[in-house]
Write a structure and sequence with these properties.
This protein is an alpha/beta fold and 252 residues long. 19% of the residues lie in helices and 35% in strands. Helix 4 packs parallel to helix 5. Bound molecules: flavin-adenine dinucleotide and FE2/S2 (inorganic) cluster. The site of flavin-adenine dinucleotide (FAD) has 19 residues, from strand 4, strand 6 and helix 1.
């Protein structure tokens, strides 16, 4: 679909906060789903970016991303009134059940944005652990704190919250509170450590995986990742079968 840029801001150097107007017919996104966005005529492949937030009434979708290469730099340079060609929402999202015990959100770095939509869908029934390398790299901290009943921050250098890794805080909270599940997004080593902590506590865990993508809709197999169960290992497409997977099925 063609969407119109409403605003494009810099929450911090190297990151963009893009809001677009979508059609009234656009599907309601689930937290953890992504949009596959065309990045100008010079780039053949679209770039996948997670839905960070959405306002269904106003028809607004929001993306928060780091600009690293030509695709994300193109998106960061769009101005209000520009149009973008976007496919979505795509993929399998997180389980967000507001009833019952709270859900623990675990985010690392630029993995934090999809957790904002998860916190919104959980309508207050979420606690969050947000880890960053350092305070100047943090994003969405105030907004997540306002949507979650409890929020803990940590950083590698101690400049934001406690000086420790996200999984260490997750381990502590899992020992204190009975959570329905853990939803995690961030760098792969963090996801693996959070999944191990959840497994040790006997709490279900879902992780959002990142792979480079081409088609984004399950047709090309560019994004295959290994998953396994008792029956043995197999491959799944991150774009269609994920990006959110039951952590127990991921072959780390
Ligand atoms: C499902 C999904 C959701 C995503 N959501 C977000 C998001 O909300 N915010 C955000 O900042 N980023 C997100 N990403 C990562 C984002 O898609 C990449 O940063 C982007 O495609 C890079 O394109 P580029 O042209 O700017 O850089 P490129 O020149 O293509 O790459 C620049 C650097 O980023 C690495 N990279 C490229 N694509 C990926 C990828 N898919 N996964 C991991 N590393 C990659 C490359 O190895 C290279 O080091 C997501 C990725 C996936 C798969
Ligand atoms: S990107 Fe083509 S199958 Fe996933």
């Amino acid at each position: 679909m063609t969407v119109t840029v409403l605003s494009n801001e810099n929450p911090r150097p190297g990151a963009a906060d893009l809001r677009v107007r979508v059609d009234a017919s656009a599907q309601r996104p689930r937290a953890g789903q992504f949009a596959h966005i065309a990045c100008g005529d010079a780039l053949l492949l679209r770039r996948p970016i997670s839905l960070c937030d959405c306002d269904e009434e106003a028809g607004v979708w929001r993306f928060v991303f780091e600009y690293k290469g030509p695709g994300t730099r193109y998106l960061a340079a769009r101005k209000p009134g520009d149009t973008l060609d976007l496919l979505g929402p795509l993929g399998r999202g997180f389980t967000c059940e507001p009833e019952g015990p709270p859900t623990l959100l675990a985010g690392g770095g630029i993995g934090v944005p999809p957790l904002l939509l998860a916190a919104r869908r959980l309508t207050g029934a979420a606690h969050a652990v947000l880890g960053f390398r350092a305070a100047p790299l943090a994003v969405l901290t105030d907004e997540l704190a306002s949507l979650c009943a409890r929020t803990a921050f940590c950083s590698d250098d101690g400049s934001l919250g406690t000086r420790e890794f996200t999984d260490a805080v997750v381990r502590r909270l899992l020992a204190e509170t009975a959570y329905a599940r853990v939803l995690a997004c961030g760098p792969r080593p963090m996801l693996r450590a959070v999944a191990e902590a959840a497994r040790a506590a006997g709490v279900p865990c879902e992780v959002s995986l990142e792979e480079r993508m081409a088609c984004g809709v399950g047709a090309c197999l560019a994004c295959a990742c290994r998953v396994g169960r008792e029956a043995g290992e197999t491959f799944r497409r991150v774009c269609l079968d994920g990006p959110v997977f039951d952590a127990e099925t991921v072959v780390w």
